[in-house]
Write a structure and sequence with these properties.
Elements: H1 3-25, H2 30-51, H3 55-58, H4 65-89, H5 94-118, H6 135-164, H7 170-201, H8 210-253, H9 255-264, H10 276-280, H11 286-304, H12 318-336, H13 357-373, H14 383-388
Helix pairs in contact: 1-2, 2-4, 4-5, 4-6, 5-6, 6-7, 7-8, 8-11, 9-11, 9-13, 12-13
Amino acid sequence: MALPNLLMWAAATVAAIWKLSQLIRAPHDKGLRVVTMCTVLVFIALSAQLAVSIPAVAEFFPSQSPKLIQNVILTFFFALLLVLLQASVAPSAVGSRGWLEVVFALVASGGLVAAFAAADEAHQGASYEHAGEAPAVLAFYLIGNLYMSYATARGAYLAWTTADHTRSRARLSLRVAAAGLAVNCLGTHTPRVLSTAGRLVSGKDPIPGTATWTTPILAIGIVAFFLGIGYPGVRTGLVKARMWIEVRRHYRQLRPLWAALCAQFDNIALFPQVSPLREALQLRQMRLRYYRRVIECRDGLVCLSPFVAEPVDSSKTPEQQAELVRDALARAAAAAAAAGEEVSVASVLAAPEAAGMDADTQQLLALSRAFGRLDSTDARPVSGTTSSTS
C-alpha cells in the first residue's frame, strides 16, 4: 500500500466529509451539491483503488487489476459527474441524457475490460510509457483516453455553464474546475488518443513524446480541478477562522470589566465564573460566549449606575469612565455591607454612539481595556475586582 495513495485517500476522505457537512447546512445550493458529489465520487474511486491494493483483497483479483479497476471506476465517476452537471444546467433533460452518459460509460468500461483481457499476462496493467510493446495495451489506452477526451470536454462545458446558473461562491469553484478539465482534455487525453491511434493503425507515432510531456499537463489539470472543488471550503474555513480569532480576542478583552461586575453583582452571570486558565481552554461556541459576556457586562453596568458619583456623557474618555466604575464598585461594595448608600445619579456608562450591537460592544471593549489598565496597586483597590482576577 503506497504512502502517496494512502495520503490521497485520506485527503479525499476529509474533503468529502467537509463538503457533506456544508451541504447539510445549505441543501438547496446547486453549485455546492455538484462540488460535494465530485468529492464523494473521488473518495469512492480512491477507496476502491486502495482496497484492491490490500494483500488480503488483492488475491481475489487478477494481477495488475488495480490499473483496470482504476480506469473503470474513473469512467463511472465522470458519467455520474456529467449527470450531476446536466441536472444543474437542464433538469428536464437529465433523464434521457443521464441514460446516455451511463451507456457511454458502460461501453468504455466493456472496451477496457476486453482490451485488458486480450493482453498477454506479462503486459497486463502496463503503464502508458510501455503501451507500445503490445497492441492490446495500446487499445486499452486508446479506449480510455478516447472516453476521457469526451468526458473532460463535456464536463468542462457543463461545469462552466453550471457556474453561470449559480450565484454562490461555488461559481468561481466550478469555473476553475472547468479550466482544469479543459487542460486535461486538450493537453493530455486528446494528444494521447492521436498518439495511440496512430501507433495502433500505422505503427507510427504522429505526436512523439506524449508519454513524457502530457504527464505534467495532466498533473496541472488535476490540481486545478481539485483546487476548484476545494476553493469554497478553504475560503469559508479561512473566513470562519479569522472571525473566531477576532471574537475570542474581544471575549478576553471584556474579562476585566466583566469579572469585576460579576464579583459585585453575581446574579448577572448565567454560569459561575471560571479561572483565566480554564477560560483560555474554552474553544467551542465562542460567538455565543462572547455575546453572553457583552449582555452580562451591560446588565452589570445598569446595576452599577445608581452608585456612579457624577453624570456620564460622551465627553468622558474610557479612562475617565473606568475610574468612575472603580469608584462605583467600591461604593456598591460598601452599600452591600450596610456602610454606604446609592448616589442615585442617572448615568449610562459606556453609552453607544450609534444604534446596534456593534456600537454597544465597541464602547464596552474600550471601557474594559481602560479598566484593565488601572493600576492594581492604587490606594483604593476594589475587593470584587481583586478576587475576580486572582
